[in-house]
């Protein structure tokens, strides 16, 4: 999958050399390669355009860390944007409702709905310890009902029996009643698919949706379908309130473009990926892992991470030395602290790793990624002199900085107060060590 992207970027890494900064001119050829690779992988054109624009915006002006080549730095940006285009964070399945939590499966015939229903049942039983009921509303193909029953037996899932002549809505209503009486946590409803979008099918599944009020309506789509998958996804997203996507057959020779396009087109995240025909072949979808897989550049990604850590280490040591030497802590140092936080994945990523007390403290001062971004913008709007000697910041300078950063003057004042607080803390650390600093914080 995406072999071309790896190959093309390998060339980029070799050709982009010796530049200290990424510029529009020196990344132009590289971006052309990325664009070609994405188009070859069958990513939808509007998605490619937006992707390239975002990479460009993030990359231009970026300083290249000393241990990386410019090409590697660009790969780093591409990697981050690949993660972002797939939604950034892993999107969990939502079961938070009065049981049974209904999961409605939608998609074209052959997409893998029935198979995925069986896999999902197994996954929910094993990973979430749920009692699951499998229901088939595919009354058009009796074989489809049998297929689901077979999968239910194979995975040890309860199966709701259907009688000849029953209509989808009747089955759904009866199954819901059955699931309530038998205390099923989750009820997965497989639906009829057609070879192409057709109004009768959409109407039927819309009716099922209204009746069942599913907490999850998952659109199942075959990754091998490429561009067609995008068109189908669009039609389903318009007809139904989808909550997520299952991307199947990622194990095949799919060119993978659908993985990048689907969120843009449907506005809904991929929640699961089908990676084998067998019942164990379903995985929770992780945008970061997928991005690494698409890039297929484990070595380069490792290098980038290491460089990042190296820089943080160097900077941290420099800062520690500076404090020890008694030099004052200025706004440049303050900014660097923010950058380090950003390198670590931003405030929201750090929150996950911080102990509860610290998380609460950060919430109290309303320190989130947005505030962090604004803070950096304000410091960037200052002159080097102002950063070194913040005490020269009087009203007119503050006004100029606020305009430059596009924030009200109060924000500049808030930042300066925060900086002073940090500076005080640094001084205390210097004089009396940690114990004194902690006392100071309490007061
Ligand atoms: P439905 O018509 O949407 O219910 O599609 P099915 O569940 O019957 O699947 C169609 C075909 O795709 C079957 O042969 C499945 O075994 C196969 N299939 C489904 N998901 C996957 C997958 O993730 N990987 C592979 N290799 N095959 C799959």
UniProtKB/TrEMBL annotation:
<dbReference type="InterPro" id="IPR042101">
    <property type="entry name" value="SRP54_N_sf"/>
</dbReference>
<keyword id="KW-0687">Ribonucleoprotein</keyword>
<feature type="binding site">
    <location>
        <begin position="190"/>
        <end position="194"/>
    </location>
    <ligand>
        <name>GTP</name>
    </ligand>
</feature>
<keyword id="KW-0547">Nucleotide-binding</keyword>
<dbReference type="InterPro" id="IPR004125">
    <property type="entry name" value="Signal_recog_particle_SRP54_M"/>
</dbReference>
<dbReference type="InterPro" id="IPR003593">
    <property type="entry name" value="AAA+_ATPase"/>
</dbReference>
<dbReference type="InterPro" id="IPR036891">
    <property type="entry name" value="Signal_recog_part_SRP54_M_sf"/>
</dbReference>
<dbReference type="Pfam" id="PF00448">
    <property type="entry name" value="SRP54"/>
</dbReference>
<dbReference type="InterPro" id="IPR027417">
    <property type="entry name" value="P-loop_NTPase"/>
</dbReference>
<dbReference type="InterPro" id="IPR000897">
    <property type="entry name" value="SRP54_GTPase_dom"/>
</dbReference>
<feature type="binding site">
    <location>
        <begin position="107"/>
        <end position="114"/>
    </location>
    <ligand>
        <name>GTP</name>
    </ligand>
</feature>
<feature type="domain" description="SRP54-type proteins GTP-binding">
    <location>
        <begin position="100"/>
        <end position="296"/>
    </location>
</feature>
<dbReference type="InterPro" id="IPR022941">
    <property type="entry name" value="SRP54"/>
</dbReference>
<keyword id="KW-0963">Cytoplasm</keyword>
<keyword id="KW-0342">GTP-binding</keyword>
<protein>
    <recommendedName>
        <fullName>Signal recognition particle protein</fullName>
        <ecNumber>3.6.5.4</ecNumber>
    </recommendedName>
</protein>
<feature type="domain" description="AAA+ ATPase">
    <location>
        <begin position="99"/>
        <end position="252"/>
    </location>
</feature>
<feature type="binding site">
    <location>
        <begin position="248"/>
        <end position="251"/>
    </location>
    <ligand>
        <name>GTP</name>
    </ligand>
</feature>
<keyword id="KW-0378">Hydrolase</keyword>
<dbReference type="InterPro" id="IPR013822">
    <property type="entry name" value="Signal_recog_particl_SRP54_hlx"/>
</dbReference>
<comment type="function">
    <text>Involved in targeting and insertion of nascent membrane proteins into the cytoplasmic membrane. Binds to the hydrophobic signal sequence of the ribosome-nascent chain (RNC) as it emerges from the ribosomes. The SRP-RNC complex is then targeted to the cytoplasmic membrane where it interacts with the SRP receptor FtsY. Interaction with FtsY leads to the transfer of the RNC complex to the Sec translocase for insertion into the membrane, the hydrolysis of GTP by both Ffh and FtsY, and the dissociation of the SRP-FtsY complex into the individual components.</text>
</comment>
<keyword id="KW-0694">RNA-binding</keyword>
<dbReference type="Pfam" id="PF02978">
    <property type="entry name" value="SRP_SPB"/>
</dbReference>
<keyword id="KW-0733">Signal recognition particle</keyword>
<dbReference type="Pfam" id="PF02881">
    <property type="entry name" value="SRP54_N"/>
</dbReference>
<comment type="similarity">
    <text>Belongs to the GTP-binding SRP family. SRP54 subfamily.</text>
</comment>
<comment type="subunit">
    <text>Part of the signal recognition particle protein translocation system, which is composed of SRP and FtsY. SRP is a ribonucleoprotein composed of Ffh and a 4.5S RNA molecule.</text>
</comment>
<dbReference type="InterPro" id="IPR004780">
    <property type="entry name" value="SRP"/>
</dbReference>
<feature type="domain" description="Signal recognition particle SRP54 helical bundle">
    <location>
        <begin position="1"/>
        <end position="86"/>
    </location>
</feature>
